[in-house]
Each structure stands twice: as C-alpha cells, then as structure tokens.
C-alpha cells in the first residue's frame, strides 16, 4: 500500500517548512538550551497560529482535530528544523485530556484544552511513580503528572517507570476504561525541581514538584494515559524521522564540498553506499509512520516508532562519521540534530519496548 500526502497536506508541510526556515531555529534552540525561552515561546505562538496544536484538539475545545495524519506531517517538519520545547508532551497532554472528556470527565478538558490550542499554554507530561522527570518543565505553564498508571513506562526522556507492565491497548475511538486498567491520579504539579543535564542540552529535564491540584482520579485516567502515550509515540516517531532527514540533507551537502586528494568525498563509492543505506532506512520508516497515523493501532505505532527512531540514529552516526572531526564540535549546527537522535529513539518507548509490543500484538 502506498501512503502519499494529498495536496492540502503537502501544502501544509510546505507552509510549515517556510515558516520554520524563516525563524532561524538553530539560534532559537541554542537560546532554549541556556534557559532563554523567549525566542522559543515566540516561535511556539507562531506554530499555534499555524494550527499545529489545534490538530490534536477537538472542535468543542477550540481545536480542529484530532487529525493524526496532519499532526504527523507537522512533527516531521518540527524535527527537520530542530524546534525546541515540549512539543510532543503538549500533544500528549491534549490527547489525555481529550480521552478523559470522551469518558465523561470533561472539566479538565474545558479548562486546559482551549489555551493549549491557542498556544497561550505550554504543557509537559510525566507519568509513573517517584523520581519522574518532565521535559522542559521550566518553560511549561501546565505540568501534568499521572501516577499509578501501571503502564509500560514510556516517558518523555526515554526512561522506564517503576513496576511498569504491558498495558491493555486502547485504540483511537474507543470509549471507557479497560476493566483491567489500574486506578490512577492526574494532578497539576505546582512547580518543579532543578533542571538536570541531558544528552541533548535543548531537552531540559526537571522533576515535577509533589502535591498540587488533583484533576481526575480513577481507572479511566490510566486508560486515557495509555492512549496519550500512543499519540506521543507516534509524533515522536515523526519528529525522529524529520531529524534523520535533516541529518541526511546536511551530510549530502557537506560531502559535496569536502575534498580529499583533490576530489569531493561525495564521489567516493563507500560514501555513496553509506548515504544510500541511510536514505533507505528513512524512506522505509515513512510509510510505516503514515500507516500508523491512519490506523492508530498500538502495534502499528510501535513499529513506526522503532523504525523511525533507529533510522534517525543511523543517520546521526553516518553524519558524524562523514563530517569527520568537525562533526564533534558543538559550534556546528549539525550538533543540534545529532544530539536529538538517540533521545528521540528512546523517548515514549525504547526500541526493546516497541519490538515487544509488535511481537505481542
């Protein structure tokens, strides 16, 4: 089966590419890594005006979605341009609140979804029990914490929550909590601890503060989080694919310029083969990604996540090798994408977790 974007989706991708190209995202990402969020939040507002966050939110809450295919299109572009911020977590929070509303718990959705759609609020999301780390909690205006999920431990930073077993899969469109789902609590954290170092300096991690307002409680919260984790895995896969494509594009441009023995290294057969393998990996991930966006089946999402994540990581290794010593420098903008590849590969489902879900389907 072929998965091709229609004209409207392709035009949306081009418009986001133009917006982000004009926004100097490398400088924005570098400022974000130092704790200067102003340029990033300004870009966040422009993305909201373009309708990116509204794609994850239903019309009754001032959105236009949920539209998973269009979300996937958007996140490929966000990855290609190394846009900073808790983008995935905001979409996951929107999915969680939407599913709660579908199950009859509408108060949190009415309160939080409209500002997420408009870009007036920035959300991050953490789940598990104790020692949790939330992505970019220092920039978020809404820090949601889900405790007692019993889920499979997929978190924003790629860690594993304690005691996480394999969850009962919830597909898009299903209503009501699984009878086997554990009780869980959704709370609004009142703050966060110190920002911790990360493999990717642009991905700033902090532990949410304890306590805070309880927004919802019950088995339906665990079920809603399970659905939100699937959505997060899908858009993380899209972001990873975008990172891989950017790494490949930049590497191809570089090997055409770098010379050795008086010849551009891009003409060497070994270099061509390495780049071809990278391209095949990325293009193999693309139909899996869009197929998963169409079906929203947990196993399909897991397959897309592991494939896109591994392809992006392979692209990073190729880029690092072919750039030579200059590839190891932080001053080169390439580092902004290189440092994302592995965290995105592991975030919201490590390769081992994703393979286990595919095999267990």
Q: C-alpha Rg, in Å?
A: 20 Å
**How many helices in DSSP terms?**
11
- Catalogue the unreliable spans: 158-177
Question: For the terminal residues, how far apart are their CA atoms?
Answer: 21 Å
What order do the SSEs take from the amino end to the carboxyl end, as H and E? HHHHHHEEEEEEEHEEHHHH
Query: Which class of secondary structure composition applies to the elements?
Result: alpha+beta
Number of DSSP E strands? 9
Strand order of the largest sheet: 1-3-4-7
Biggest sheet overview = 4 strands, mixed
Average pLDDT level: 90
Q: Which descriptor suits the 3D outline?
A: globular
- The share of residues in extended strands comes to 5-15%
- Please give the share of residues in helix: 40-55%
Write a concise keyword list for the protein shown above.
361 residues, four-stranded mixed beta sheet, three-stranded antiparallel beta sheet, 11% strand
Give a written overview of the molecule.
The strands form three sheets. The protein has a four-stranded mixed beta sheet with strand order 1-3-4-7, covered by helices on one side. It has a three-stranded antiparallel beta sheet with strand order 2-6-5, with no helix packed on it. Helices cover 53% and strands 11% of the residues. The chain contains eleven helices and nine strands. A hairpin with an 8-residue loop joins strand 5 and strand 6.
